[in-house]
User: What shape does this take?
Amino acid sequence: MGAAPGTSKAAHGDVAPKKKKGPGALATAYLVIYNVVMTAGWLVIAVGLVRAYLARGSYHGLYYSIEKPLKFFQTGAILEVRKHKCPKHTNESRIVPSSVVLTGFQVMSRVFLTWAVTHSVREVQSEDSVLLFVTAWTVTEIIRYSFYTFSLLNHLPYLIKWARYTFFIVLYPMGVTGELLTIYAALPYVQKTGLYSVTLPNKYNFSFDYYTFLILIMFSYIPLFPQLYFHMIRQRKKVLGHAEDYSKVE
Amino acid sequence: MCFPQVEVLDAKTREQLCFLDKVCYHRTDPHWYPARQALKLDPRGKSLRDDEILQNLPVGTTATMYFRDLGPQLGWTMVFLAEYIGPLLTYLLFYFRVPYIYSHRYAFTSSPHPVVTLACACHTSHYIKRLVETIFVHRFSHGTMPLRTIVRNCVYYWGFSAWLAYYINHPLYTPPSYGELQVNYALAIFVICELGNFSIHLTLNNLRGEGESRRFPVPTKNPFTWLFFFVSCPNYTYEVGAWVSFSIMTQCLPVAFYTLLGFIQMTIWAKGKHKAYNREFKDYPSLRMAIIPLIL
Assistant: This one.
């Protein structure tokens, strides 16, 4: 999905700085390095997309030019969920129990789409919907990781904060649309080949139909996406709503 | 003798509701039965317990309390009845292959494998035992459960039993690889664990009955209770054992998965109970683990 909603407490901390349990120096250094690397990685993907587009002169099949860095950096985001589990070493100033669930869910859905759908079903890799969500993710992640980097260094330009809490309005639905269209495109191939599916009878009396599973995943977007989206909108009001009270550049 | 004035405000609207205690409030508006009321001294703080005495609370001559509606509540007995009736009945729907579950030609047929009938008997008696315990054995302390939690629990129990039953009673079910040997051994362990679990429940029950002094459970003459030498919560140990043996008996992966989930949840509960025992009783035996002897 487009933006990462659960990870916004740092900004909230910027707005109303209460007793912050900040991470130690070593943890901060580690986090800064992590976020800089991730920002750089997604910039590489962005540049790769632009260059491929200019070289080919069309939108089609751009996935292949950034396939490897996309897999690497999107999977690398799993490290973020682990960090959320220990309050001292997080991207946030303050840990909120729900953000582990939201971030974890966010990352797992992205990793699922990268590996279990796009990588696994070769035929969808040339679909335009792939470009749609890759673009959404790329722009979102570049802003998000630079936001964390600057926050950790206590030097957050208002522009980055504004971008983080505004771009998602378009990017989130854009990403979700790309993701859903991609899953939908994968369905006929999954059904035809029985990909990742197990049928009865078998020794362990178990069955799994990946085709039905993908359909259920698509339906799960209906309750989940609005929740995440409106959570971000509420965060936006909280964070940017105080813009008049605080100076523009921290 | 001068009683302190007690005013009660709504925690959200700060409107004065103004009654002396939960029972009085309930008499005025039966919609808010006592189990549903939470009274607090601080709108964002913890609720006061039902047995707290006004005189002992840090209030002045005028006590201000904040009221919160906990939502519809159900007593523990009702909770467990709701949770257990589902699995009992849904499994039977699958065993008898009620129409529309499996392909039409299998409607109301029965499986050729004896293990399937045995599994049905085990599953059914497991839940009948639980229902009997809920009605006749367990003595529940105060307390209720909010409706939302009950719905969630029921979805879990009913949903999983339907999923298990679907595979075990499926026309394409494959009986265990080691045949009768596997089934019989698993059945023996299952029966032992069920008896064990029941013994522990009786033992815990008798503990409650004996007056004010709180004691921790100890092994009795009943050999099943000797597990108390090794674990704090042998009822959970036996429960896990019963489900593991059921998994082996049916050789069904969904059952094993369900067992795993139950094991995780019961371990969390057992660890909590174990910690509570250790905190409360200075002479608590150190050999005891929470749920798995010598290990967990």
